[in-house]
Amino acid sequence: MLKTQFTSLLEAGVDEAGRGCLAGPVTAAVVILPLGVKLPQINDSKILTEKKRYDLRSQIEKCAIDFQVAHVYQDEIDKINILNASIKAMHLAIKKLKKKPQYIIVDGNRFYPYEEVPYKCIIKGDGKYQNIAAASILAKTYRDDYMRKIIHDFPEYGWNKNKGYPTLSHRKAIEKYGITEHHRNSFKLLS
Fold first, then answer.
1. Which pLDDT tens digit goes with each residue over 77-96?
2. I need a surface site. Which of 17, 33, 117, 151 has the fewest CB within 10 A?
3. CATH number of 11-177
4. pTM above 0.85, yes or no
C-alpha cells in the first residue's frame, strides 16, 4: 500500500506521461486527495493494466478534492525541449486547480518552483505516494485518450496500440510514410 501523503498540508501530487514518445503531447496531471484517504489499488500507472487505469481514473476523480490535466504539444516540445515541456505541463495543470496547494510533490528529480509553493521531487514517487500515483494514472489515461482521437487521421502509425512510443512498428511506419504534424521533430524518429 502506498503512503497517503508526504505532509499533512493540502498537498498536490504531480506526474506526467508521454515524455519518451515520438508523437503527441506530453501530458501532466495534478491530484489533491483528502488527507488519509486510502485507495488500495492505486499504483504507478506503468504497472497497471489499461482497464485498471481507467477504472481507477473514475475513482480518483470522484474522491479527489481537486485534479487537473494539461497537455504541451509537439511544436512546443520541439522549441523548449522535453524536460521544459514536461515541467510546463505540470505548471499548467497546477495553475488550473481551484484549490491552491500548500505543498507539491513531484515524481522524478526535476521541477521548477511554482509560485511560492514549497515542493519536493521524489524519484519513483508514483510507486510511493497515492497522490503522485493518482496523477500518473490521470496523465496516462488522458494522454491515451488524445492519441486515440488523432489515430483516425493517421491509422498507419498504430497510435491506438503504441500511443506514440518508439516501437518498432511505429518507427517502420515513419520510414514508410514519413512524419506527421504530430511527430516531434527534435526527437530521433528513426532508429
1. 999 999 999 999 999 999 99
2. 117
3. 3.30.420.10
4. yes
